[in-house]
Write a structure and sequence with these properties.
- With 289 residues, the chain is of the alpha/beta class.
- The protein has 2 domains: 226 residues, 2-enoyl-CoA Hydratase, Chain A, domain 1; 48 residues.
- It is 42% helix and 16% strand.
- The strands form 2 sheets. Strands 1-2-3-4-5-6-8-11 form an 8-stranded mixed β-sheet, with helices on both faces. The chain has a 3-stranded mixed β-sheet with strand order 7-9-10.
- Strand 2 and strand 3 form a beta hairpin.
- Helix 1 packs across helix 3, helix 6 runs antiparallel to helix 7 and helix 10 packs antiparallel against helix 11.
- The N terminus is likely disordered.
- GO terms for molecular function: lyase activity.
- Keywords: Lipid metabolism, Lyase.
- One of its GO terms (biological process) is fatty acid beta-oxidation.
- This is Crotonase/enoyl-CoA hydratase family protein.
Amino acid sequence: MSNKRLIESVTPPSWRTPVELLPISTPHCRIERDGHVVIVTMDRPEARNALSQDMLVGLAEAWQYISDEPEVRVGILTGAEGTFCAGADLKAMGTPSEDERVRHRAAEIPDYHWKGLLRDPEALPAKPIVCAVEGYAVAGGTELLVGTDLRVAGESATLGLFEARRALFPMGGSAVRLPRQIPYAFAMDVLLTGRAITAAEALAMGMVNRVVPDGQALAAARELAGQVAACGPLAVQAILRAYRETLGMPEAEAFKVSDAIGWPVIGSEDAKEGSRAFRDKRPPVYRGR
């Protein structure tokens, strides 16, 4: 297989540039690099991109790569062929991968399933993740969405946490996260009824940032990712850290943590470049230092 792939079908011609297929990709998870952006595609369309060992290992590997690679500034999570993710496939998740490298990595990565699902607080990507949803993003699909930072949905997308309806529990973290992200009554509507949520409802609730015409979620996510990537990477990463590390703290204590994170950014070379670029009326060139 060539290490050059094209993002096709859902992207306008101006976006159709070759991207690098990374060797950490798995049979059910395609991981591609396009400059400062990494595109992670859940790629099991025959099962509506339901979760499997191949997929979860690939997701865990992708989040680690995004965190570790200095030139990467933002990630995009999407699903192949018009579907985001239909949640867990219990049979597939209990079956080892046919790929020897995936089996080896599953044994090497502690709790790879929680890492892949963006549930391990110690292994969250240090950089923002933009979610691009088409079609079904239900159960584990919505749990993955709730773990991301910016979210775009096609207008016919279907979200929902169906676990309570099936006498199950949303183990991906949504029972904790969703009431912290959107108003309580909306969160309980999603969690306790187990009903399907339309993209328009998700936008009104604050679960997603934008609703776009069907087939355009990835293009819109790439636009958002480009805006994030154009910002100072140290500043972006520090803002994420400040949010995550001050959750639940009293305000005065949170300000101390936030200041400790923020002052080094204020004194960085990138901050100086931002001021110079503003003065010179030109785009800044940030180097992450």
